[in-house]
Amino acid sequence: MEKASAFHRHPPPRHGKLITILSIDGGGVKGIIPGTILEFLEKQLQEMDGHDARLADYFDVISGTSTGGLVTAMLTAPNENNRPLFRADQILDSLNICIATSAAPTYLPPHKFETKTREFNLVDGAVAANNPGLVALIEVTKEIKGRNPDFSPHRAADQALFSEDHYLRIQDDEMSDELNAMDNATEENLKKLKDVGEALLKKQLSKVNLATGKHEPDERNITNEQALKSVAETLVNERKERLGYKG
């Protein structure tokens, strides 16, 4: 049994300056890559804020589709002490077991079940919502339009105007066809995907040119690893500000 943690519950965004969102893409077995990135980020948070720190302690919304949905569930599912059930470094082993639970069409059949009122035949969420980041933003917008007092519309508007300053996307768009396969779950391929994630941490930070759709080096000239360390520092400072909020 895990001991109860002294870590405080994540305070609402109205007590801070930011609305924090974590979006996790899918991709079958390629979920090992974001799993590797998230493991690094959580370790940075633990170094700065204590070993009990978990990713769910720092984000207002966590979204994911397909395998990203599995990772999201693992990061946010509570244990008996209402703390995250899994650490980020436990994701990779579990993904190797649970990867088949994403019912991606042509790979796996729909998942069918019934309740007292209706029947469901469900497929991979990425079929309808392939961009979990957009889904997360829609949910935040609903909270603002619904006048949830925990979400400040003025703060959200300010963030929208300067979102590039607080936006980080890490993606490898140069993978081979072999590694891009969503269902190659051989031990050799899983190791290669883990290596891709670790190499991605060392790559220079890039951003998408909206005119060409291509990734270009970020003008800050830092690695993804350095960018994640900066994100961790921002998240820790945001959490501390919320915890110290006096109203």
TrEMBL record:
TM segment ranges: none
Q: Where is the PNPLA domain?
A: 22-209
**Where is the catalytic site?**
S66 (nucleophile), D195 (proton acceptor)
What are the EC numbers? 3.1.1.-
What are the entry keywords? Hydrolase, Lipid degradation, Lipid metabolism
Position of sequence motif GXGXXG: 26-31
Q: What is known of its domains?
A: The nitrogen atoms of the two glycine residues in the GGXR motif define the oxyanion hole, and stabilize the oxyanion that forms during the nucleophilic attack by the catalytic serine during substrate cleavage.
* Functional note: Lipolytic acyl hydrolase (LAH).
Q: What is this protein called?
A: Patatin
| Organism of provenance | Rubus argutus (Southern blackberry)
